[in-house]
Design brief:
elongated; 8 helices; 2 domains; 3 strands; 53% helix; mainly alpha
C-alpha cells in the first residue's frame, strides 16, 4: 500500500514527537490512510494499537489525556516503609567507622547486609515478607552513605 520511503518518513516523523502530539499524528495518519482502523495501522506502520486508539479518541473528543510518567515504576523502600531508614541507621551506626585516612565522607560498616536484614527482623520486629531483599538493603545503605566492606585485622 505504502511506498517504503513514505512509510520510513512517517515513522521517522512519529519518532520525533512525544506524548499527545505523537498520538495526534499517528491518529491523523490512521484517519487519512487506514480508514481509522487501528489494526491496519498497527500492521502496516508497526505502531501500538492502543496508542492509535487513544489518539483517535483524543481527536474525536478534543480532550487530551495527560501522561503521568512520574507515577510509573516502583517507589523506594524508604518511601514505602518510612521507619526503615531510621531503623537501619540505628543498627548500622554502632557497627560503622570512618575512613582511617579521612579521604572520603563515607562510613564503613562492619556488618553485612544479610546481618542487617536479620537484625531488622530480630531486634526491630519487622516481618520477613515485608522487608526488602539483601541486595536492596545494601543499596539503601549505600544511599545513606555507608559502604559495606570487609576490613582486615590490624597487625600489631
Amino acid at each position: 500500500m505504502f511506498n517504503p520511503t513514505v512509510r520510513a518518513t512517517l515513522k521517522d516523523a512519529a519518532k520525533k514527537l512525544t506524548g499527545h502530539r505523537k498520538r495526534d499524528f499517528i491518529a491523523k495518519v490512521a484517519e487519512d490512510y487506514f480508514d481509522s482502523s487501528t489494526r491496519k495501522t498497527e500492521t502496516v506502520m508497526g505502531w501500538n494499537r492502543e496508542s492509535v486508539q487513544l489518539g483517535l479518541h483524543e481527536r474525536r473528543s478534543g480532550i487530551l489525556c495527560v501522561d503521568n510518567y512520574q507515577a510509573r515504576g516502583r517507589r523506594k523502600s524508604e518511601v514505602i516503609q518510612p521507619h526503615l531508614e531510621a531503623d537501619l541507621r540505628s543498627l548500622v551506626d554502632a557497627q560503622s567507622q570512618a575512613d582511617p585516612k579521612l579521604q572520603s565522607p563515607f562510613l564503613y560498616a562492619r556488618i553485612s547486609a544479610k546481618a542487617v536484614r536479620a537484625a531488622l527482623v530480630d531486634q526491630k520486629g519487622y516481618d520477613e515478607t515485608h522487608l526488602p531483599s539483601r541486595q536492596t538493603i545494601g543499596a539503601i545503605l549505600n544511599r545513606l552513605g555507608y559502604r559495606l566492606k570487609k576490613h582486615k585485622k590490624s597487625n600489631p
